[in-house]
Amino acid sequence: MTKTGETRTATASRYRVAGRWQEVDDARTLPVVSPVDGSVTGSVREFTHAEIDEVFASAGAAQRAWAARPLTERADLLHRFADRLAESAGEIGDVLMMEIAKPAKDARDEVVRSADYLRHTAEDAKRIIGESQFSDSFPGQARNKLAVAHRVPLGTVLAIPPFNYPVNLAVSKIAPALATGNAVVLKPPSQGALSALMMCELAYDAGVPPEVLQVVTGRGSRIGDYLVRHSGVGLISFTGSSETGADLARKAGMVPLLLELGGKDPAIVLDDADLDDAAADIVAGAFSYSGQRCTAVKRVLVIDSVADELVAKITERTAKLTVGDPRDNAQITPLVDADAAAGAERLVHDAVAGGAVLALGGTRTGRLVRPTVVDHVTEDMELAWVEPFAPVLPVLRVGSAAEAVRLGNRSEYGLQAAVFTRDIDAAIQIAARLDVGTVQVNGRTARGPDHFPFVGTKASGMGTQGVKPSIEAMTRVKSLVVNLSGKDLDGTAASSRP
Ligand SMILES: NC(=O)C1=CN([C@@H]2O[C@H](COP(=O)(O)OP(=O)(O)OC[C@H]3O[C@@H](n4cnc5c(N)ncnc54)[C@H](OP(=O)(O)O)[C@@H]3O)[C@@H](O)[C@H]2O)C=CC1
Ligand SMILES: O=C(O)[C@H](O)COP(=O)(O)O
Q1: Percent above pLDDT 70 for the chain
Q2: Distance 454 CA to ligand 2 centre (A)
Q3: Does this UniProt record's set of keywords contain Oxidoreductase (predicted)?
Q4: Strand pairing partners for 364?
Q5: Residue 293 Cα: closest atom of ligand 2
Q6: How many angstroms does the Cα of residue 161 sit away from the middle of ligand 1?
Q7: Which ligand approaches the C-alpha of residue 223 most closely?
Q8: pLDDT for the residue 11
């Protein structure tokens, strides 16, 4: 409950549209069913097209007043929002845990991480400085013009996060947008909408006007096209599957896009690597949140001569992961997408039928896929290329670093890669050849810390995120050119001053 006693989550009978609470007069509700135990965690409204029009109209109108407020005032509101979010980490974390079966501690950490994101963005936004230049820095020009460039907001940002970080990947879009004077229309994932709604109510408690941060709930497959084609959209910031992202890009028309999509991140292990450290990083990277992370380690490319030893170490560590209920903080929990569990099982069976060797796991009970390591996976197997979004780790053995690079780059994706070696020259050479957004040297693939630039090449995305890059992406440069008179102070023709 908020301090004023209002329920923070929208319910099927009450929801905000254009900033105001509305009573539902029809049956457009969408239950949020928990992957943990099948219970109904809550329900949300499926917005109509007319309501979406109202949302964009009121967001657009409110944005101008929001952008006109002093930057320090907007930053202060984000700090207050961050404080409330951190205070409510337990409450929101519990809902998030039931909505997406994220282990209790990780769910709470996601909320705290989002508060940190807000604070960092509020501070960085204050330090966006423009630039100015005289005309005579270009050949043939006199010093008679002064350009002053500054950053202005784009209007209304349509923010569409995925289920795996319904709070953090919403905040990573909302924070830079609001800090820079944009309004936001948030379309949360259907699985994760309740925690996203709770989070937005905290923003309103903190003083963010409800018209400049609005939430539109409903299935992406039903309302997504209408949203992304809406004339009120100034930029779309989307995180999710490469399929949905590519489809959205085709439909959106001439609006700037920030896309964070799928990945098949390789961990390349050379023969001189510290295999204990590499195994620890690979297991954490592959199995955290049951592999449902775009940046999860999704394949190991290991030099033959150390492959047996590495696979043994990976398998030993993976076997110790706890499997079960997120309320007990189990590390491996039921998958959000029931089809992903069946799909992962099929990929493993097909690989084993084709000659791969099951080192661990390979079974599931409903959505609960036991942590699985598949060795001797080869290029002709689907498991080498498809992103399972499940706790399944294929190992491909390679003869050389060059072969690892070739296989790394053969993927349609290009999010991140990890290289494990004690030879820094080799690491740098390999990194230079990998067509990915980020290469981690002797560490697992990961997005954070959140102010680092986050980029995907090929089917993994478009544009750069991270605190500062997102601030830049959600603004555009506007130039003011002052044309100088060409006369000196005493009225004579100017020399090359000032
Ligand atoms: N690179 C990255 O950072 C990440 C990538 N992913 C990728 O996403 C996949 C799983 O995530 P998932 O959430 O299922 O991804 P989806 O692409 O299915 O959904 C992402 C978001 O888009 C919405 N959406 C669905 N259809 C449309 C549409 N036609 N137009 C507009 N929005 C739409 C969803 O809403 P709804 O929930 O209502 O369907 C959700 O909010 C994995 O393949 C993974 O690789 C996931 C997380 C991060
Ligand atoms: O979308 C994702 O899966 C995240 O951006 C990954 O973030 P993480 O590396 O912090 O888990």
Answers
A1: 96
A2: 10
A3: yes
A4: 369
A5: 3
A6: 7
A7: 1
A8: 57
454 CA distance to ligand 1 centroid (A)? 18
Which atom of ligand 2 is found nearest the CA of 454? Answer: 5
Q: Which of 296, 277, 269 is nearest to 285 (CA)?
A: 296
How far away, in angstroms, is 186 Cα from ligand 1 center?
Answer: 13
Please identify which residue in the block is written with the tokens 């944009």.
182
pLDDT in tens, 110-134: 999 999 999 999 999 999 878 999 9
Residues 344-403: pLDDT tens digits?
999 999 999 999 999 999 999 999 999 999 999 999 999 999 999 999 999 999 999 999
- Name the closest ligand to CA 239: 1
Strand partners, 420: 269
Contacts of 161 (CB under 8 A, 6+ apart): 169, 170, 172, 173, 186, 188, 189, 192, 196, 239, 240
Ligand nearest to the CA of 163: 1
Phi, psi angles (nearest 5°) of residue 106: -65, -35
Quote the CA–CA distance of 236 and 64 in Å, as a whole number: 19
| Rounded-to-integer distance, Cα 448 and Cα 451, Å | 7
The reply to whether ligand 2 has any atom less than 6 angstroms from the CB of 164 is: yes
Phi/psi of residue 74, nearest 5 degrees: -65, -40
Q: Which residues form the catalytic set?
A: 260
**Is the distance from the beta carbon of residue 486 to the nearest atom of ligand 2 less than 6 Å?**
no
Under a CB-based contact definition with an 8 Å cutoff, are residues 120 and 450 in contact? Answer: yes
pLDDT at residue 186 is higher than 60:
yes
Measuring CA to CA, which residue among 376, 387, 366, 356 is closest to residue 324? 366
How is 240-263 classified by DSSP, letter by letter?
A: S-HHHHHHHHHHH-SS-EEEE---
Q: Is the pLDDT of residue 220 over 70?
A: yes
> For atom 7 of ligand 2, which residue has the closest CA?
447
Q: What is the DSSP letter of 484?
A: P
**Cα-trace Rg, the chain:** 25
Nearest atom in ligand 1 to 460's CA: 1
Q: Find where tokens 């501690």 sit.
A: 105
* Contact in structure between 413 and 459 (CB atoms under 8 Å): yes
Domains of the chain: 4-261+461-478 (3.40.605.10), 265-453 (3.40.309.10)
Other Cβ atoms less than 10 A from the Cβ of 291: the count is 25
Pocket lining: 293 vs ligand 2, CB cutoff 6 Å: yes
